[in-house]
Amino acid sequence: MILHARVVLDLMERPEQEIIFKQMEGDFDSFQGSWTLNQFGSRHTVLKYTVDMRIRKDFVLAESIVEEVNTIIPVLLIN
Question: What is the value of pTM for the model shown?
Answer without folding.
Answer: 0.67
